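Hey, quick one: can you model this chain's 3D structure?
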Amino acid sequence: MKSFAIGLLGFGNVNRTLVELLQRKESELRERHGIECRITGVASRRVGWRADAAGFDVADLLRERNSDAFARMRGGDCKHYNAWLDAAKPDVVFEATSLNVETGQPAIDHIRAALEQGAHAITANKGPVVHAYEELRELAARRGKQFLFESTVMDGIPIFSLFRNTLPAIEVRGFKGILNSTTNVILTGMERGLSFDESLGRAQQLGIAETDASHDIDGWDAAVKVAALVNVIMGVRLPPQKVEREGIRGLTGEAVRSARNAGAPCKLMCRAHHTESGVSASVRPEQIPLTDPMALVGGTSSIIRFETDIFPGLTITEENPGLYATAYGMLADFIRAAGS
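Sure thing. Here's the predicted structure for all 340 residues.
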């Protein structure tokens, strides 16, 4: 049996759901994978830098919702990140903080320090992948640890591990897909008669869209995902700022419904393909004919189609995922790291 101390960096929806999933899968992790774990560190803006090398009670973690409640729990409140790492002594750090599109910080520094401390680093944050992938991958290799990030694109669907582990020696020449669920939900609502603002408001009420959904609406989230796929799977350095980007903010309900009625619904399409000078990548609204399976992808569903040297078309679809799908991607990475 391998025992792992776990540090949770960020304690919002993703890492809280991960804790629930770890609890739910506890017997399976022990019996099938020989893994047992305890949570020795929890850190966020709301709860501070909490650490207890003996391990927090999982039921307490899931019950407590505010900083005062955490202050009453066993364990110390550290002054900064490195002190937290020293106190929690994690074997694995799950990083699920907010995305910084421009620099990927401070998540990059957090992952770098975790790897240097001797912990595996698993993230749901796209920033470190698009701004520091090669550096963090090489650092992890030198330290004999894993830097994994399956949850950054299409939740827990095995996109990165598919090419890393299952399809060796495949050349990915390009891809296209629908990768941002918020804009997909908004466009679906507009097709059904809502205005842009009404559809956005409904997505926010359902918890699908953030209060400030500008990263989604203006195409930044999709552009970062495109950059992550190009960096990792196509092996070309591409910052998100180099992805040609147009969001859906300028679309009207009338235009979206007209496109649907004409048999070519409007979707926020992500594309990348090799060119003689590198990789050309874009995110923009497009009208997709109903003969294309991508035209039928609505709601929170996602789809991606890869073009490779062996398979002319390899398509993966994810239907209406929830938070458990994102948390599962991190759990799957944990199992991979534990077996390395």
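One thing worth noting: The first strand starts at residue 2 and ends at 9.
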